[in-house]
Amino acid sequence: MSGVIVVMRQTLLSCTSLARKGLMGLAATALAPATPGLAGDGVPADTISTLFELSRQDVAEVTAMLALLGFSVVAAIALVRTRLAAARKEARLRADVAELQLQADRYRALLFAEPQILIAWPAGGHRPQISGDTSMLVPSDQPQRILAFGTWLPPEPALQLDRAVEALREAGEGFMLNLTTSHGHAIEVMGRAIGGQAIVRMRELSGLRRELAETQIRLKALGDETESLRALASALPWPIWARQPNGALSYVNAAYARAADARDIPDAISRNLELLDSADRTDLQRALGVGGHFEGRLPIVMGGERRIHDVRAFTLGGGSAGVAIDASEVAALTDALVRMHEAHRRTLDQLSSGVAVFDGQRRLAFYNDSYRRLWDLDPTFLDGQPDDSSVLDRLRASRKLPEQADFRAWKAKLHEAYRAVEAAKDTWFLPDGRALSVVTTPNPEGGVTYLFDDVTESFALARRYDGLIRVQRETLDSLAEGVAVFGSNGRVELFNPAFAKMWRLSPDSLREHPHIDTVESWCRPLYDDSVAWRTIREAITSIENRLDVALKLERKDGSVLDCMSRPLPDGATMLTFQDITDTENVERALRESNEALEAAGQMKIDFVHHVSYELRAPLTTIIGFAHFLSDPSTGPLTPKQAEYLDYVTKSTNALLALTNNILDLATIDAGAMKLELGPVDAAKAIEAAAEGVQDRLATDRIRLKVEVAADVGSFVGDERRVVQVLYNLLANAVGFSPQDSTVIVSARRTDHSVAFAVTDSGPGIPADIKDQMFDWFVSRSQGSRHRGAGLGLSLVRSFVELHGGKVRMDSVVGKGTTVTCDFPTDHIAQRNAAE
């Protein structure tokens, strides 16, 4: 309105200005004739013309302005009237607004007479308007947090309210909720769509309304719980029932109806069908009347099959309720578990390990006989189920546990097994010298199982094994022979310094476990024999036919090695290399010497053989002529001739005996001697041999003592050779015995032989030459009168060994010598020896 008035005022001012200009123009025109020098009456024509033109233009403008002025006046009048009408209408509107504001204040005062919160979402808007006292739920300085329902409601109610608000804003669905905040306050939340807005009202419930809301909540929860329980009871496979105070059925589930062979649940209730027999029902009712509950394992016939059920019943209000759980499988499993437990108990009793099981209360639940014997505990004490600490205290009192500086801490650490999840192993060293391996295993159902094993012997064996390994290692390292052990994979597992030195190898390279092919390539510069190396490789890497292989390696440097491969039990192979260069050289020298000695010995035997045969013929002739000359028929001899002839006869007889002995030994060495076996009377053989030395016994004043056991009897042998053996022994004993001494010859029978023994009291034989007395041409007088070629004892041993017997000599220097000859009575042994 004020704008219009301003426009009108400006228009009037313009019109006034134009009118003023026109009038001034007209005045100037009127005054123009009085001015000198003008056209006509002194005014120029063009000036007059111009003035008229200006006058007409100004008149037009004035006319237009006057018309506009008239319109503006009319418009202003109309506008003034309109403004007056608008002012009157605005006054009426202000009165209406004031009235509405007053009513709004009255409604707001009425609305917020009690604590509540209003949240309004305009249509199409996302910024809500929040009114009321928000401090009842969130801090007063943060009212917007009221929209974060999870900050003041538990998760499930918050989710429920969030979904209800979303449905209200999107579809206009109203709701009414009674919720409990996280701080325990009960509130009522109502949502409505009003005037195109979504409005949510929250108010705290108090007094009767709160109790009513809580009751409704409880009733709803109780109804939900009842429905859940009914659904659960209907779904359970176990018969469930409820009875009225008079005993009639008031509820059964489907399992009860099936077990009672009813058509359906109403049929079972209407007919009051029973599962238990009368005696069991009587016991059940009696138990309910006395204690209010009943538990028992009873048989129930279901579907024509008798099964065991665990029946539990209890009083409920004026009636009762019960359930029957099928325990047939449980009973069978329990029986099987009992049998298994007994079997395990019997098995554990047979174990050498001590076993003790403590339950969750740390009391002894089981022990085997090995456990009792290990700790030497009283069975009465163990059968009383003592706790773990009592057992440990008793063992400690009898000094059967390891000595501990802090026994309490040690026991507490041991008892940590009751809270552990894995088994633990330890070793106890007892004061009596025993070592026990202790394994503590936590049981799944609680408690601990102790396993005790006496490992004293194992520890001792381990110590001895370790010591043996160290000794073997030191021994192996100190050996002069090179030793290398190759595993089943053909790689070096063990070697000693001698092996590396012998083949000029690096110990560091050998410690990297090279393969036999690599070791062969390293050793080929010293020994390049492909066949020998292939044999060694096969001995190491072969799986079957693993045998010892012996090789002699003559290397390029002139050394000779004796190689031996030995398969080991674990699949490995041991190679040993021994430097036998010196031995080989000595062996060659000895072989050459032996060949020379054998040739010399053969020459000696041949010489003796030929000489003996060459001597025998003239000796026989000389002996024959000596006997002929001693015969009285040939004529008398002078005493001197007879003496010389006697010397000749004795000498030739001695020479003939020596020749015969040499021939016998040569025959035995040639393997051509054969025995003429037959029965030999031991007593007669001694008598025949004694006759041959009678003259020498008489000459040297030596007594001969013969001791022949009565059970000697006879044996199988060559009688002539046996007599020859005894004669040589007696002649040897007489030769070594001093005058006026005694020579003892004895014969006795043993289990497997007949033993002849000849004992003299001569000077004896030193121990260092005792073994030489049986060699050829070995004769030692030892200061005695004995003289001879040294063939007697050689013949004795040869003849006895031909019989399969043995000769032994026992001699003490200064006290005499005893030679014993054992002739076997086993005919088979004699025959084999003779052959």
From TrEMBL:
Domain Histidine kinase: 610-827
Catalytic activity as recorded in UniProt: ATP + protein L-histidine = ADP + protein N-phospho-L-histidine
Top-rank taxon, per record: Bacteria
Signal peptide: none
EC number: 2.7.13.3
PANTHER family: OSMOSENSING HISTIDINE PROTEIN KINASE SLN1 (PTHR43047:SF72), TWO-COMPONENT HISTIDINE PROTEIN KINASE (PTHR43047)
Protein's name in the database: histidine kinase
Species for this entry: Bradyrhizobium aeschynomenes
